[in-house]
Amino acid sequence: MANSKTFNVISTTFCEYLSADVSGKNHHMGIIPLEAHLGPHPSYVPPLFLSVTIEPLVQNLVFVIEFVDPKGRLIVRAKFDCETQDQLRHHQVMTSNVQIPPIPFEGDGEYRVNILDGRNEIIYTRPFFMRTGTAAPAIFTAKSEVNLGPAFADLFA
């Protein structure tokens, strides 16, 4: 988790589609964890959605979300000037969603998300890789065991 004096960055999520329902819950479809594979000969990067969740620490804050290409060129910049109407509650969060338009694909590379504070200082950065081709399937074996704690096991007996 990255911190500034005015907010903490809780998460960043890339996905193919994002919507919000009337209660304010976000619905992410086609989540892309770290690397997008664009097929054998892409000419454009398809539109993407970026969802950023922060925890405000003050009632008035400014933050900026940037998406940057491998050459350091700015693709999208979204500035948020936020004011809460009530006292902040502990662990209250705010989610901001940004749509990244289709852009020309210039080859494999590391794109970046930067989160800046009100002083325009980068307080969080995250890589996002775009590659040609198809992702090789991950092949691994995992064994797991899940148990309820003693205080809750009787609830399902």
What report would you give on this structure?
This protein is an all-beta fold. The chain has a single domain (2-156), classed as Sandwich (Immunoglobulin-like), CATH 2.60.40.1930. The protein is 3% helix and 53% strand. It is built from one helix and twelve strands; from the N terminus they run E-E-E-E-E-E-E-E-E-E-E-E-H. It has one helix at residues 150-153; strands at 2-3, 7-20, 26-32, 35-37, 44-45, 48-56, 60-68, 74-83, 94-100, 103-104, 109-116, 122-131. Strands 1, 2, 3, 6 and 9 form a five-stranded antiparallel sheet that branches. Strands 4-12-11-7-8 form a five-stranded mixed sheet, with no helix packed on it. Strand 1 and strand 2 (7-20) form a beta hairpin. The protein is flat. It starts with a strand and ends with a helix. The mean pLDDT is 88.
List keywords for this structure.
single chain, 157 residues, mainly beta, Immunoglobulin-like, 5-stranded mixed beta sheet, 12 strands, flat
Structural class designation:
mainly beta
The percentage of residues in β strands lies in over 45%
CATH class: Mainly Beta
- Tell me what the CATH architecture is: Sandwich
Total count of helical runs of at least 4 residues: 1
**Number of β-strand runs:** 12
- For the termini, the CA-CA separation is 38 Å
Mean pLDDT: 88
Number of domains: 1
The helicity comes to under 10%
Write the layout of secondary structure elements.
Blueprint: E1 2-3, E2 7-20, E3 26-32, E4 35-37, E5 44-45, E6 48-56, E7 60-68, E8 74-83, E9 94-100, E10 103-104, E11 109-116, E12 122-131, H1 150-153
Parallel strand pairs: 4-12
Antiparallel strand pairs: 1-2, 2-3, 2-6, 5-10, 6-9, 7-8, 7-11, 11-12
